[in-house]
Structures are given as structure tokens and as C-alpha cells.
Amino acid sequence: MLYKFGKWVLKVNQLYYNGEILTMNSTNEIVEAILIKDQVIEAVGTYEELRLKADKMTAVEEINLQGKTLMPGIIDAHLHFVMYGVTKINIDCKNLKITNLNQLYEAIQKRVRETEEGYWVRVNGFNELSMDEKCYPLKEDLDAISTKHPIMITRTCGHIGVVNSLGLLMANIDEQTPNPQGGEIEKDQTGKLTGRLLETAYMQLNEQATYTIEELEEAMQLAQQDFFKVGITSIHEAGTFNVDSFRQLQLASHERRVKLRIYAMIGSLNNCYDFTTTMMKSGVVTGTGDAHFKIGPAKLFVDGSSTGPTIATREPYTSNQNDYGMFIYTEDELYEVLGDAHAKGYQITVHAQGDAAIERYLNVIERALKENPRPHRHRIEHAGITTPDLQEKMKALQIIPIPNPPFPYEFGESYEKNYGERIDYMYPVADFLQHQLIVAAGSDAPITTVNPWVGIHTAVNRHTALGQPFGIRQSISLMEALKIYTYNGAYASFEEHQKGSLESGKLADYIILNQAITKTNRDELKNIEVVQTVIGGEVVYKV
What we know:
alpha/beta; Diaminopimelate Epimerase, Chain A, domain 1; eight-stranded mixed beta sheet; seven-stranded parallel beta sheet; 23% strand
């Protein structure tokens, strides 16, 4: 650990003892003490044996944990760091606890008064199901607030948005604009635009509603502080907005303005097909980088949002017998990019939520491995409705699933409404583990809370926020839940030899909790707090 005194820096090593130290190693060993030297873990074991080691070192600080838990830093294996950050500078329906359209309009009016004409006014976290009116606003409602500011409301899923007339004009969208592949420009019964854009139509709008470098920098700093506070030390960035935001993230990491360790997927929220193919043509391959910033898998979208709902399912939605969701790309289009990526040595992955989408991707993997057999760690992001036959196929192909444990907590009731009994196989972590698949967990923030303790709580209890059971047989043990948020996340990014567990020689990325987590009532896991977060031996957050 570093202590600064004017221009002098004193390196002090630490010996932590008298707590429960969860190593998350191969046997989930709990030890008495851990010795940190500079940026790495020197040793773990009993207090007495580590005290003897410490006697041979200079400047060792002994720290009494007083019974609290010390464990590896949390690795969130799927979220949108930059996207999360901009929610901190936009109007956020969740943080403001907006529950009706009038409250929403008032918040937008206030922001309009503070914003120069011609500049975007953006809203995040909107959920029509949380509104008293149970509906979306129309573009006319937004036009009534301002015709001199482009206004965009993004649904909580991040796949659907509502825009006013000026925003549509800036995006060159009118009544004659055709629906893009994998998207919809919604019109009413008379053929007039409603302002609502779904999937790729919404994603293309984001190409126009860009952020300045200053806004991105502010957003990343705000996001980073939130992540440190809940114990996240590493993230898998699942897609920024575009090339500019990807570059800015990389620069911020390189210059250590962002201290989180980042595994950045080759994919974007907007026009991911072109983004991914362009990045691959540049020659940047999975694994390029260092312990701070590393290039991850090539990624595409197969279907849409689980809460929209727009995911691609084999059977129609329980809530609408005529709706099977939507595909973004055909199987051949997916293979054109991902088959090529596999052949060239990339890790590959997709966003796939519905069982039909998952099946389509697994067909691509099967074809790629048949044509170019090789060891791999290919992933699947979300793996929403994964039925037993798909689980068997994932086992045969040795896919790494990245489910989202906190989703049922916030969205469980809407899932049951839209998918019925299929919720028994939604984000089925217990089944994945039974098939001996290595499962890593992601929040998908800002789609839902970034707080991993809510995800761990839900993985263990499988209840919604309202206390309703949700596919309860998929519940797992506490240690299994902690594993998918630590070691398994490192494995999913080929970094299990560097981090994810507390073992000699690994990076000193660890957190201290406010209590002993193994003695915490399972119903209280969501209330766990982090009192200290350390990355590479540097304290980045402390209560």
C-alpha cells in the first residue's frame, strides 16, 4: 500500500488477520490471515506462519479485521460502464423515483431550462410498467415541452426509446423511412410516427445523440466511484456507444484516470455489426493489452430485450400469442462475422436472451468448431431462457454462460407475465453449475442495479423485490454465488492466473465487508456493505 508524504511515497505492506478471509480458491478455503506485498499477494494462511514471513519484511502494517470478511474484488462480467456513467449526468427515472408521466415531464422541463437550445436532453431508466399510466409518452408530449431541444427517453432495457420531432429530424427519420433490419420505427394506425423506436432503429438514433469528450470523462469518473463503493474491481465492458467512446475509455484506462481493470468486448451498442468487423480488420485480437485494459471477445446481438419484451422465443409470449420477439441477424450473418473471428483466434460471444436466439448462436458455434476445431472459451451473454436441451448443447460445446442474477429481482413479475412457466429456465445458474459449466455473473448495469450484493442475494434466494419466488429451484449456495462473481469472472477473461482468488502471486485486488458474510442471514445479503476496496494494493475506496 502506498502512503504519500509530500513528494515522498512510502510503501507499506499489510498483514490482515482476525477475520474470515475467503480465498475463493479451488476448495473455497477460508484462512486466518493474508500478507500483501506491494501490488500482489505474498501469502495466505495462519496468522502465526504469516507473522514469521512479515518479520523478514520491512514496513509491515498489521490490520485487525475484527471478524469482518476480506475477499477477492468483485468481477462484473457483463455491464456497460460508459453507458452507466452517462445515466449519472442524464435524467434518471430510477434515482428520481419517477412514477408517473407528469413527474417525468416536469423533470424534462427543468432540464430543458438548463440546457442550451439544440443540445440533447436525455432520460434514462424509463419503464412504462412502473408508471401509473402503464404507457409510453408520445413524441407530441415531448414536442409540447420543447421543439428547440432534441429529447430522447431511453427505456430501462436500453433497447427502446422515445424521441421528439426534432430528435427524429436530426436522425433523418420520417414516415417514409423503412424499418432497419432487426428494428422498428413505430407508427400509429394512420401511419404517423409515434416517436417510439425499437432495437436497431433506436440504436441507430444513438449515432446522432453522441456525447462530448468532457461528458464522457465526467460520466466515467462518476461511474467508477459507484463501482468502487460496492466492491467492483474488474469489469467486462459489454459495449460502448461507438468508436469514439471506446477510444476514450481506453485512453482513460491507459492514463489511469479509470483504475478499474477492464476487459473490453469488441462490440458496440450502435451498429455492432460494422463496429465489430471494423475492429477485427484492424488486427486487434482478444487478449491484447495488460492487467488494466485488455481486449475481449468479438460480440454481436442476436435478439432484443427481456423486459421490452423483444427477445426471440421458440413459442409465443405468454402475454401475446402472436409475438415471438425479433432477431437482429440471421444465422448466416452471425456466422459470417463470428465464424471468421473464431477461425482467427478470437474469443466470441453474443447477446442472446430468448431460447430461439440461444439456439441460433449455438448452431453458429457448432459450425465454427466443426470447420475449425480448437480449444476455446466462447461465451454467451445473458442466456435468458435456456431450456434443458440448450443446456445440454452448451455443455457439449463448453460455452461460458454469463447470466444476470439481479434481473429477476427487478423484472421478475414482468418475466412471469410474458414467459409463464419458462421462468423456471431463466438465467438458470443452478442448472449450469450442475452441467459443470463455468458461469460468470454480470449485472448488465445500468439496465438494473450495479450492486453485486443484490445479484448475490437473488442468486441465493431467487425472489423478486416484492418477495415473490422466481424459478426457485435455480437458487444456489452463497459460496457458489460468490464464485461466479469472482474466480469465474476471471476465468471468462483468461485471467484466472492473475486474479479472482486470493492466492500467492496474484494481484492484490480485494475488498473488506462490514461484517462476516458467511454468518449473514441469507435474507440480508442484499444489505451487505463494502468498507474498503483495493486494486493492485492501492486503496480506491474506504469508508
